[in-house]
Amino acid sequence: MNITVFKEFREKCSKELPNEIDKILQKAKGKKACAISFITTDDFYGFYIAWDYSTEIDEYFQWKNGSNPDFLYQPLVDIVEADEEIDFCEPSDEKWNFAETLLSVLEKNIREIPEEIFEKNGFKREDILFFATMGDGYYVQEMLEASAKMFNSQKTLEAYGFLVN
After folding, report:
1. What is the rounded average pLDDT for all residues in the chain?
2. C-alpha distances in angstroms, 125 versus 70, 75, 113, 164?
3. Strand runs (DSSP E) across 23-165, as ranges?
4. pTM score
């Protein structure tokens, strides 16, 4: 997939994501763990963010905390609506390739979050588990596993119970 279609999404995410993560971590002060998820629909119609202060992520779809920042929603919707070649309602190699490209863009933005944001809120980057997935659909588990491995260190994955190859 041509990564240039994600330019606006990448730029907005690069600018806004650190502030959004800072707000989440401010609320998590005093906690030992914080898992942050980027959840999309089966047809990639935007992301919302949810988080929890434990190492249990099995029920991420029921997490009570959440936000729906426009920088994660509208730019992704615009990409999906402009794409006439991918059927986002059905599984396909093209749809999975889209998912992998989107995850790589998100990974870059997560890795660029300044260390100061973690430190000022009493965390190390390794304390926070980041992942992206779908609320339901064909690629829920695949996206969760792929993104967790992309976005986090082995130490973080082990702390949250991910089996690391």
Report:
1. 91
2. 25, 27, 9, 18
3. 34-40, 47-52, 128-134
4. 0.92
